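Re: the 276-residue chain
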Amino acid sequence: MRGMATTIAQMTISFGLVSIPVTVAAATESRSVGLHQVHARDGARVRQRRICEAEGVEVPWDEVARGYAAPDGRVVVLTDEDLADLPLPTAAKTIEVLGFVPSESVDPLLLDRPYYLGAATIAAARPYVLLREVLTESGLVGVARWALRTRESLVLLRVRGHVLVAHTLLWPEEVREPAGLAPPELQPSEREMDMARLLLEQLADTFNWDDQHDEYRHALEQVVQAKLAETEPPHAPGARVIPTEVVDLMAALEASVESARAGRSSGREEPTRDGD
């Protein structure tokens, strides 16, 4: 069962002279199985201690701060008050819209964390719906700035169903260059392109997002439950051998198309006969 989105902040979308008070809720959650570091011999938890390098003593949480190490070796200690009072250009609790761009112009590599935005008040409903509908109709997405938990970032404003979504973006300078990773420029033959297009069509027809689940989490839970019951845990299936070199590209494409076509045919339900 999926968890419900919980409000973590209240902010205001600002574009032009329009203001929309909104709630902010994390749109995703981690569903991984929680594993702890333990002593292999007896299963006891292994704890990490915060030790001061200068005094050699354990430091309680209320004495832990964040610090910046300067090139000359000096350390600047930053308090929570310092971080909450940064001289940012973005107004506190404001989602300041900078402009609107075509959705396809946004590099998916920049996408970071998604948040749902809800109308915070009854009065916010009308401008909220207006922004949602105009974004849907135009095919544009908004680019804005916000400061959430003292961290300023760019955000992408888009529509998902009936809800506005703020998707935090990495700054362009945070994306590395892929120098030297692309292979030499080669021109596939038209026959290879035709067969690859056919394979894409076959796979596009059979893929369904709702069929995808976290199999790793399920497998890990099976092993944990078996160990709790002191029974033999399930084991990994035999490794599937995937060739690392393509000897005959056309043959591989043709075999892939046939396999996809056969898979799609076997997935169809047989028509029900009258009287069955």
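The beta strands are 7-15, 18-26, 66-69, 75-78, 94-102, 111-119, 140-148, 151-160, 163-169.
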